[in-house]
Amino acid sequence: MKGQLKFFGKLLAIWLLFFLFQRLLFIFHFLGDFSGNYGELFLMPFHGLKLDLSAFGYISGIAFLISVPSFFITSEKGLKIINRIITIYFWTILILVSLVMCGEIVTYIEWKTKLSSKIFMHFGTPSEIFRTASGSYTFWYFFYFIVQVVFGYLLYNRWFKKNKIKSTIQSISKRLIYGLTYFLVGAFVLVLMIRGGLQQIPVSATDGYFSNKQIVNDVTVNPVWNFINTCYVHFKVDLSAYYHNLDPQVSDDLTASLYTSDGIDSVKIFDQKQPNIVLVTLEGWSAQMIEPLGGESGITPNFNQLCNEGLLFTKIFSTGGTSETGHSSIISGYPTIAGVSISTQSSKCRHLPSLNQSFEALGYNSFYTFGGSLSYGNIGGYLTDVGFDKLVDENDLNLTPTGKLGIHDEAMFPYFLSEVQKAKRPYFYGLFTQSTHSPYDMPAEPFPGYNNDGYVTSMHYADEHLAKFVEGIRNLPDYDNTVVIFIADHGRANIYNQNTYDEMYFHIPLLIWGGALKNEYAGQTIDRVGSQADLAKTLLNQLDINSDDFHWSKDLLDPSTQAWAICTSTLSYGWKNEDGYTVYHMIDDRLVHSPYTDQKEIDAALKKCRAVLEAMYREFIEL
What we know:
about 625 residues, single chain, alpha/beta, 19 helices, four-stranded antiparallel β-sheet, 13 strands
């Protein structure tokens, strides 16, 4: 048994060193992001040890089981076969673990979150993964993979190659006793490692959190453990387990009260009864890049000027962090349920209301176009299911310039304008921009002053071509009967905010502009909290169209409407109101942040958030 114990002792040491090396690679790539917290990096291995041991337990369980028969095999040939199988298994796991870490580093550049089961949401359209990855992403992916394999090879040669299981026990009875003891004790220890100890609640990511800076906590949490854990939740855990905190009746009553208004007539901002509606969905436009929303000056000068001519909603938040959930929020007034992407479920999409269907009853034509592929996130399927008359994406067009993701805004804005010009009146026409999505390969010089940041440059580029589109709209013969709505599908992490649990990650623009907007509302702002899902009821009420089916949407122009928004990710949900943002990690079962210090206020905010999400989830199951 000494040989087997020595073998696994060295195997544990190899993996702990390998996990530490992976963290060093992550730190090397994002070194500047740790500014102000470098001292905490020395504490990282100690805080992450429990999760490292848990990861070791997961990946070494099969090797342990393979080693058990060595107690009952006496021939050298038999032991050689066992050692060879374990060696093959070691290299298989090392390659897989390396791939996970490569993926984590590369996706962290864009998502600012650890690699998780979120990746499976994109596997339905695998081309999306490759096309949105820039050349530098691909380089770094293979670079870190090679570096990890080389380091693994060095560890293998130093400790593993000669670390063979040997058996010196001759007595059959001793083999049986030692083998059984080894199996029982070893299995117990591995289970203990996986659970993180004897405590009632198994180890979670919270056990690795010790810093106030998200990236420090992210690098502390073992990437293998995190990926295994989130995949387990994705494939095995019933989401309903996270949506039963409240009694259904309590949830429904509280939700109804949150959506209740005093019935005050909404102010009317249009001077036309049936204006043409143009919807421009801005890919990943963050409020932090837009000066009138408290962001940077000079990046979007044309949109900034447009805000002086339109009605700007200054406190609008996306309900999720992906384009497909952004579309269902905007067009169907359907906030994102954490962990759910309704656009991928056609049978449920067909039960959703939609702006185009509501307009169709009044004789409106509908059209939607995107310079990329509408297969991403099944956006095209969703738009088809909710009844758009015509859809056009890159597969139907031959325009330039193009990038890896599709046709850039420089070409799409003029194309969309041409469609608007010849549209049969009245119409509801939409464009989804794409140049502000990585890999930011638009034909533009880096915007000065921001360290050649691709996202900043893409925002300035998109703004430049948006301005030309706006001038085309101004020149329409029926401009006075035209409304243009600019709204983002989601926010994003950027050079000023890397924290995906921060409310600024969800802060987005919503601007209503056009000739049909009454003069007294030009340059005005609405400074009440709301979400992108509230656009639907707001717009329909302005046009005196029945909006009862949009019961998850609120009227932003009704002064008696309550001011709040729900923001979600794959793993969290949060309640945003005028006091701030209270966010909860649903998988780790922990509070991430709240503006409140009184536990009663925190509980009250989370209760409201859960009430709405749980009511939505129950309806979602029945759709």
